[in-house]
Each structure stands twice: as structure tokens, then as C-alpha cells.
Amino acid sequence: MSATPDAVSTSRSPAAGTRGRWRPVGLADAKITGGFWSPRQQRNGDSAIPSGQDQLEKAGNLQNLRLAAGIGEGEAIGPVFADSDVYKWLEAAAWEYGRNPSEELLQRQRDLTAIVAAAQREDGYLDSVVQLRYGDEGRYKQLVWSHEHYCAGHLIQAAVAQVRCTGDRELLEVAIKLADHLVATFGDGKTVDVDGHPVIEMALVELYRETGTAAYLDLARWFVDARGHGIIKNHGHEPAYFSDRVPVREATTVEGHSVRAVYLAAGATDVAVETGDTELLEALKRQFAHMWSTKTYVTGGLGARWEGEAFGDEYELPSDRAYAETCAAIGGIQWAWRMLLATGEASYADAIERMLYNGFLAGVSLAGTEYFYVNALQLRGGAHADNGRSPAHGRRGWFDCACCPPNIMRTLASLDGYLASTSDGAIQIHQYVAGTLTAGEVTLTVETAYPWDGAVGITASGPIAVELRIPAWAEGATVNGKPVDAGTYAQVDAAAGDVIELKLPMATRVVGADPRVDAVRGCVALERGPLVYAVEQTDQEANVDDLHLLPQASVAASHDDQLLDGFTVLRTRGRAGTGHRDAVWPFATDSADGVGDEVDVVAVPYYAWANREIGAMRVWLPRG
Amino acid sequence: MSATPDAVSTSRSPAAGTRGRWRPVGLADAKITGGFWSPRQQRNGDSAIPSGQDQLEKAGNLQNLRLAAGIGEGEAIGPVFADSDVYKWLEAAAWEYGRNPSEELLQRQRDLTAIVAAAQREDGYLDSVVQLRYGDEGRYKQLVWSHEHYCAGHLIQAAVAQVRCTGDRELLEVAIKLADHLVATFGDGKTVDVDGHPVIEMALVELYRETGTAAYLDLARWFVDARGHGIIKNHGHEPAYFSDRVPVREATTVEGHSVRAVYLAAGATDVAVETGDTELLEALKRQFAHMWSTKTYVTGGLGARWEGEAFGDEYELPSDRAYAETCAAIGGIQWAWRMLLATGEASYADAIERMLYNGFLAGVSLAGTEYFYVNALQLRGGAHADNGRSPAHGRRGWFDCACCPPNIMRTLASLDGYLASTSDGAIQIHQYVAGTLTAGEVTLTVETAYPWDGAVGITASGPIAVELRIPAWAEGATVNGKPVDAGTYAQVDAAAGDVIELKLPMATRVVGADPRVDAVRGCVALERGPLVYAVEQTDQEANVDDLHLLPQASVAASHDDQLLDGFTVLRTRGRAGTGHRDAVWPFATDSADGVGDEVDVVAVPYYAWANREIGAMRVWLPRG
After folding, report:
1. DSSP collapsed to 3 states, A232-245
2. Minimal Cα–Cα distance from A27 to chain B, Å?
3. What does each C-alpha distance from B333 to A489, B153, B357, B443 come to in angstroms?
4. Which residues from B are below 8 Å from A313, CB to CB?
5. Out of A241, A385, A388, whose CB is closest to B386?
6. Region of residue A579 (phi > 0: left; psi between -120 and 50: alpha; otherwise: beta)
7. CB neighbour class for A430 (10 Å; exposed up to 12, middle 13-18, buried from 19)
8. Does ipTM exceed 0.90?
9. Dihedral of alpha carbons B29, B404, B612, B375, sign
């Protein structure tokens, strides 16, 4: 029942369908072979995924499924969405097997798949926690909180990944049975209700792409359209929390719980593309643009509020209390990827880059096995961790609500799929990583030390039209020595044996914020290439809480291979603030900062913070 | 069983005991007769208190007590702490009766008291929700969340107020029976546990003062000392939430849930004073100072975080997401009052003034019958209310968790008690309000239009030493024409018939913030006298979200008797920012604000905001 990855021809990434502008590359057609991301994928496969399975065992997620399968006796443990973490792990394991097949990993997947299959009820229903806690009578009774569709969605995503990467169809059969049960149960004239937590929409479209069964696409569309009419009521949060205040096609922004919002938007994008619904796609463009211009952190982090894990108001982007959940960055990447394929607009690939290298990557330790749930852009010295998710704890091995760790695992294992896309006669390269990309008969070999160096060499094995994303930050970029426009795709027709030389300018950028972003008024952040930088206490002479950058100080970049797993360090000059240490009241007519001593300032990539020690950190530094 | 207020001789405010420096004034010895606060008290008595009883009926709080008393049948409704709102209302009604006796109000209190007495169990236990939901077996089983001591504390406070103001002893008998039950149940060798929500500590000390029963003081001390040793564990929040991370006498700051923290601190201050525990008092001084210098808003608001309704880290004071619960301001006033009486330090009276006129007073509408739970210092235009407590709703008539409204009622009704204190041969005047103050045989008549005007005239009926608080902000103040030091008490020996003339300078102050308060970097706030000002959209030419103050613009103050209930308006000049309305990404190298048109800027007292319309508002304005 298994197949080697090479024998599998379907796409590893969501297929764009006929109406999208670009198609994702197929399973074997994009391979990261070195550079920045390769060791991260390696650690994900070697350490994170095996340790993730141990964590699922320890936390009881696997035991819940065994109990539901009639193996042993006991009560369900943990949160109501416990199954979803197992499914995300199964998806990660499938992509990892596709990337780097091993018999052991295949066996792990088969063992877990057997448990999942055994837990499924005769009629296709599956949710171990609901089965154990509430029985058949409890099905879909509390859909707003039960996460039954959410778990189903992650199961379907795992099943699709599994069949694509291993050829195994066991989990797909479970997913189809469950999807058929959903089709039979929900819709007009049936049960009219939606899950409090979206993801089923993306999953059903993907299952439609895999199987061709139109009923799955129809149900996905129905779920998208059902929201926003007050279908979710009186559940302890206002409808906005559940993205249920405004119909998706009328919404002008994202709001409420950020992961829910971007998962829904990604699924709605899939629906729009597959059904040719241009009105819906336009609405999603509008929402993405508003999110990106008013509700996104400089790191690409999404979600300003701890309360409700939610998007804030326009320009409400506090650094210290940024929520910026790792899962929201992942959902943001998934949404942007679908928008990119649908529209061919470079800005979506720029958005993916920003989220990937910053808001997402900070969520995982360099070792690969510790995680941030919350990705703050500032931590003060001596901050007290009063919540299990507090950044002041540093990254942690697992969480009571463990949505982020296996979400990171599946993203890293499937990263190759986000590098490129194809259209008739052309290939688009979106992210620059050492590796190979294939379109038809032609293979492109990409060599680069990006993001440390802006030089990218691409060798074509045959004639092909290549479209290279020039990031919007890359003013002055050249392709084969000729200037190209930032924020677009540069077109190159390559002949066999040609080497395309892309040069992206890697000068450090000192960026300010729109004055309406009150939280960082008077501050700047440092960026270099796709990376946002941060200052950590361990590198500074002065107290980070008091540090100011000198207005005109130059910034020097130097690569340090020895520091952690190697990165480019930025050095500039600042001054220690004098603050008002002894003030009994901090708001006075003379509260202007005194002039402190000049000091060196060292900045490291934001993603790398808290890998040496947990201490004060800032992305935004006062200047002046 | 009743008595007129004049016949009651005990103090209306918490008695300071023998070891405090100053004594609160007695029941009939401080009377607000006009000026700023009198109409607010009037509306509180005429509108808010009667309407509060209706709300308690509608929300089911009273019904719970009836059911527990065996009147009717049904289940408990509402939050587990529902009884406490009834008790806070009873306390408010008692103080109001003391201020302005009416037979109708007395009858209302007696009717409710009869229900409370009937709900009490034979052995003294009383908590209607626990009785109805969990029965006798459920007592004190979930003390961390059940609020049984919290409800008991508010009952005791109401009972003490009732006996002091009406002479009725019925509620006091209930309180004593319940307190005796607590004494018999909790302590070393008995049940070792504490309530998740403090307030019982303050209440037991007050009951000790009223009855002389030392066991109540002992139990209060035991509750204070039991905390901070991990007595509260595994309850969904970390111990800091419950002020249980560090023992009170070792703590150096306030942390966790802000109302819980300041109620506990106020109770601990009572314990310290009554037991002569100078070590504990020193710890509380340290905690108050740290709170005031690093965790207090310019409005005196306490609690920076929605998540956990908690104090944030040092200098974490966001304007937009300020929680600053109205109850926390009330608790802060109660704590500062106890610290003032204990130490005689003017800074505590300054703190009371700041909280009272700003963070507290904004919590109630000018009509007196609508309330803010959360007191933000900024609301952006078009902000969406995604929570019942969101300031974007404007003030509301009641809340599912209705702790704030009756807390405001009891504070306004008992405000007279915070005006002054006495020591041997002297009277201290802390707050300047038109009214009369009596110390022994001497009556002082205070005449003033404060806070609109800084002139205060005080006429003495006989010889007396008067100590006048000169606020720390009042540099240049004079008493009888002679300069006095700000931040101290000015001493005046008055003879019979003397008129003391205090002049407080009422120039507008443009205040900045300690540079470590990241949230308001580059901004200033306007203050005049004890009032913090705010700009509301309804008064501006320009968009409040974009508004900047001109650096050198002068500020003109003018009194407008016609605007709402009359207040002094501030006018200055600013400019409309140009922002980056069309930016697709708000963080760029050229994000500095453009120069917009010059405009008039109008500021109104912060407490008065959202009484005309709910729209954009800012306390802190960018300057430059």
C-alpha cells in the first residue's frame, strides 16, 4: 500500500485548481538541499517529530484515541481539540517522509493511523474526546466549542499529505468516511451550524482536489457562507471572536481570534479559486490588504491581543503584549500562499517571506524542540511569567494547549512546497533557498547563502522562462547585472546551461513606523534582507530597557559562524537612558530622558532570540 | 432597633486603631454640602442606588438569596459571587442613609436584610449560590473560585455600615454569626485555605473594630499570612494571579489580578495597623511605592492587562488596552486611605485625589447610572467592541459581572469620610470640597469651587490646629498669602472666626512620561489641578487618531457652565498628522509623519469623556 515519494505525482501543496494564476510545484519538484533552511528541516525530522510523538503520548492525546477505539479503559484527557494535535503530527510525519523517507517514520505513521481508524465510529463520525465524554448523543451539540470540525479538518489535511507522500490510503479512507458523514449531516435542510474554529474549509477543498468529489467543495463553500449571520450566539464571546460578525464576502478586515480568522480566510480563498468566485476573492484581497497595512507586526506576527487571542483595532500593535501566536503566522503563510497562487501578486510572496523568517521562525528554538506560543517583540528585564504561554518563560517543550508545536513541524517539513510555482511555460521562484526546482523537463539548481548574502545563482538544465521575485525591500536589485524593479517578478528567459545571477541588496534598513502605530512612536527597527533584528540583554553594555539608538549612527553587519548556528550580527551605537529611577511618580513636566553614556549596541536576528538566555529583548528601539 | 445618624457615634470610616498616626473623622463630622461632589452624591442616591436594586432583581441576585431562604423554587442564577453585589448595594444604601436619611431607603435595606438573614444557615454559613448549587457538602470545597469569603467580606462591610448609619443590628448579627463560623472553620489546625479573591481581611478587621472581638483580627492576620506559600495551586492561573506567589510581608510589588491585589494590600494594612506590625507596614509602603512609580496610569488607573485583569510588568502601561478596572481604582483608594492614616504621608492623599477625580470618576456617567468596567486612556476611531466590557460600547447600565456599579455607589455615598482626619488637637484636610468638618467642639466650614478654582476658604468656629494638604503638583501654593511647600501638610493655627485662605495654582500642566513607559513615548498629557484631561473626537477639527500637539503652543483654560454639568475646557493648538493612509505596509524607512494642517485642539476632563458620544479619545497626545 505504500509508494516511494517519486512514484507519487500529485502536488505536495494545495493544488490551485484551474482558475488560479499559478500552480504549486509537485511533490518531487522542489527540494531544499542546503543553506538556511536545510538544517532546520533536518532537526525537525530528526528531533522535533519523534519528540512530538512522545509528547502526544505523555499528554494523553494518543490514549484518548485508543480509548475511543476500545483499547483500555479510562476517561478522555486534555482539551476538547486533543485529536487535532495528533493529526497535525501525522501530517508533519507524512511531509517529512516525503522529504526524507525512512521505514521507521513510515511505521510510526501506520501505527498511529491504525489507532485513528479504529477510533472512528461505524457511520464515519470521529472525535475521541466527544465520544468518550459525551457519547453519540453529544455529537455536534456544542459545535461552537467542541472543535469537532476543526479536528476533522486536521485529519483530512493529514490524510491528504499521507497519500501524497507515502501512497498509503488508510488515513484517506478514514477522512473520506468522516467527510461523507459531514456532508450527510450539515447544510441547508440538514444541521445548520458551523464550528467555532475554522480549518475544515481548507481541508474539504483539499479533499475535493484529491478525490474530485464535488460535495466536499460544496460543503466548504456552505461553511464559508454560513458564517457572519449570527449563527454562533451566546457563547461567552461576541461573534467577532469566531469570525461570525460579518459574512466573509462582506468583511473589510480580519478580526477576533487571529488563528481562526486566517484559517477561515485561507479556506475561503480555496473556495473562491475552485468555484471561480471573483467577488469572494476580491473581498479576501481587501481583507488581506487591511490586515497587512494595519494589523500586522513588523515581524509578520498576527494578533495583538492576549484577551481572545485576537486581532486588535487598526494600528494597535503593542510590542510587549504582542500575542502574535506562532499558529497565526502559520495560518497567515497558508492564506498568503493561496492568495499568491490565485493572483500572481509579488506582495503575497513578500508577506510569506516576512512571516516565515520572523514571526514564524521565532516560534521554534534553534534545536527545534522548544516553542514559543506567543511571540512578543519586547520583553522587559525582570518580567514575571504569570501565564504558561508567557514569553518570560522562554520557549517550552510543550503546552497544555499544544496547537503550535505540531503546526511548526508540519510547516517546516512541507516548506519546499512554498519555494516556487509554475504556469504554462514558466516557473516562478518565490523564496531563495539552495536546492533544485523542476518544471517539466527542466531543472533549476539554486545556489545561495541567502538570507546572509544577497547573491543567488540559478543554473538551468534546459530552456525555460524564469520569474524571480524581487522583494519590495530590495531596491537596487539586479538580475544578470541589469536593474530590476523591486516588488515585482523579474522575467528571464534561460537557455540550457545558463546561470542566472540575482543580486539582492543586503544593506541594513532602519525602519520607522506609521505614526498611528502608537506603541512604537519614536522608535526604529533594524532589518537586513528578509530578517528583522532584535537586541537582547546578553549582548549589550547597557540595560535594554533604557537603550536608545543614536540618530545618525551607522550600522555594520558581520557574519559570525560561531554564534549559535551562525548568523549575521548588526552593530551600531546608542546611549543608555538615564530614566527616572528614583521618581515616586513617573508622569511629570520634566520627564524627558536624560542623556546617558554612549554604548555599543548589538542586534541579532529576531528569530534567534532567547536561545542563549531569556532576558530583556526589544525589536523596536527608541531613537534620539 | 433603628437610630438616627446623629445618635451614632462610631466612625463612618475604618477606624485607625491606636497605632495609626491619624484617625478618620466620625460619621457626622464630615459633610459634603456643595461644590463638585454634592450633585454626584445626589444622583447616586436619587438614581443609581434605586436603579441598582432593580438591576439586582433583574439579574437574579436577590432571587438567589430568596431561594436559599426557602422562598420559591429554582436554581441559582449568575456568577458564583452574585451575593457580593447585593452586599455592596446594602453598604451603599447604608452610607446613603447616613448622608441623607429617608424612610423609603431604610425600608429597602430592611427588606433586603430580612432576605439575607433568612438565607443564612443555622450554623452561620451563608452563600446563596453555593447553598443552591452545591449544598452543605460543597462548602469551601473550591474556595479558590467560589468567592465564599469574598461574599462574606462584603456582607460584613455592609453590616458595619448599616449599624453605624442606621443603628439597625440585624445585618450585624448575620455578619457576626458568619464571622464566628469562619473563625471556627479556618486557621491552623482547622481548614487551611484562603479565598481566591481577597476582601475578607479588610472586613474582619472592621468587624473587630466594631465589636472588639479579637478573634476576627486574628483570623484576618492569619488569612494575610497564609498567602504566598503556594496555598492556591493548579487552578488555571499561576499563583501570582491570586497574590499567592510571594508572602505579603516579602513582596516588593503588586502583581496579578489588580482588584484582588489592592484589596489584599488594604486588608494587610489594616492588620498591620491594628497589630502594630511595623515590618508588615514597611512591606506595604514598599509595594505601594513600586505600584505608584511603575504600574499606575496617569489617571491613577490600576491594572494594565485585560488577560487576568492584571497588573503588568514595570512601565507596561498601554493607553488603548488599559484595563484600569473601576473596582481597582476603588480598591486603590481604600488602600491609600489606610496608608495615609497609618503614616500621615501626604503622598497617599495625593494618590487618593488622582484616583478619585480620574480613574474612579470616569467609571460612572454624569447621570450616575451607567458605568465603565474598563477605563481605557485611548479609544481609536471605529474601534469595534468585541467584549461586553469594551470601552467601545460606552458606559453600560449593568454587567454580567456587576462588581463595579455597586462598588461605585458605596464609594460615592461614603465619600465624606475621606475628606479629613484628626489627631490630638489637630485636624487634617485631605480633599477640598465645600462642606463642614468637625473636630471636637470646633467646626470648619469649607467653601471652594475646587477643582475648577484653586481658592479654598476655611472658616473655623473655634481655635484649632489645621493641617492642609498641599498637593505635590501645587508648586507655588499659598496659605494666607504665604508660600507653602507642595507635597506636605501646611500647618495653621486658627482662632475662632478665622478664615484660612488656601490658594492652589491652577495653571495647566503639560506632563510627559518616564521614558521607560514605552506606550506613550513622545506624548504628553494635560493636567489642571487634580484633573487629567482627554481629547474627544466630538470636540476636534482633526481626526483624533492623527492629532499632534504643537510643541510650544500655550494652553488656555475657560470654564463652561453649559457643557454637560459644567467644567473647565482646555484649548491649545495642534496639527493633523498625514499618516500614511495609502501605505500597503506601515513599517518603512520613511515612516516619519508628514506635516498636516494646524488645528484647534479642545480637551475636556477625562472623567467626562463618553458622556456625549462614544468616539475616538486620547489622554496622551503625540507632541511634535
Report:
1. CCCCCCCHHHHCCC
2. 33
3. 62, 18, 11, 26
4. 320, 380, 382-384
5. A241
6. left
7. buried
8. yes
9. positive
DSSP state of B44: I
Find out whether A618 and A383 touch, Cβ atoms under 8 Å.
no
Give the span between the Cα atoms of B564 and B552, in whole angstroms.
30
Q: Which of B384, B388, B520 sits opposite A255 (nearest CB)?
A: B384
CA B472 to each of CA A405, A424, A584, B487: distance values in angstroms, whole numbers, following the listed order: 52, 75, 11, 4
Distance (Å) from the C-alpha of residue B276 to the closest C-alpha of chain A? Answer: 26
Could you give the domains of chain B? Answer: 5-418 (1.50.10), 438-503 (2.60.40), 509-622 (no CATH)
* CB A360 within 8 Å of CB A330: yes
Q: Do B316 and A321 touch (CB under 8 A)?
A: yes
Cell numbers at A523, concatenated = 522608535
**A191 DSSP 8-state letter:** B
Q: How confident is the model at residue A10 (pLDDT cuts 50, 70, 90)?
A: very low
pLDDT tens profile A476-534: 999 999 999 999 999 999 999 999 999 999 999 999 999 999 999 999 999 999 999 99
Which of B240, B380, B622 is the closest to A384 by Cβ?
A: B240
Instruction: Answer yes or no: B309 catalytic.
Output: yes
Dihedral of CA A31/A33/A39/A44: which sign? Answer: positive
Tell the residue number behind the cell numbers 469562619, with chain if given. Answer: B182
Tally C-beta pairs within 8 A across A and B.
Answer: 192
Q: What is the largest CA-CA distance in chain A?
A: 76
State chain A's mean pLDDT as an integer: 94
pLDDT at residue B230, as a whole number: 84
Whether this model's pTM surpasses 0.80: yes
Cβ contacts of A514 on chain B, cutoff 8 Å:
579-580, 583, 586-587, 591
Contacts of B261 (CB under 8 A, 6+ apart): B243, B254, B255, B311
Q: Determine if the peptide bond prior to B405 is cis (ω within 30°).
A: no
Alpha helices in B60-127 (DSSP H): 61-68, 82-99, 103-119
pLDDT over threshold 80, residue B6: no
Contact list in B for residue A388 (CB cut-off 8 A) is 238
CA distance B328 to B258: 6
Catalytic residue positions of A, numbered: 309, 403
Cβ-Cβ contacts under 8 Å, A587 against chain B:
298, 511-514, 517, 525
Angstrom distances, CA of residue B427 to CA of A225, B1, B106, B468: 70, 33, 32, 9
Quick one: which of B195, B589, B370 has its CA closest to A528?
Answer: B589
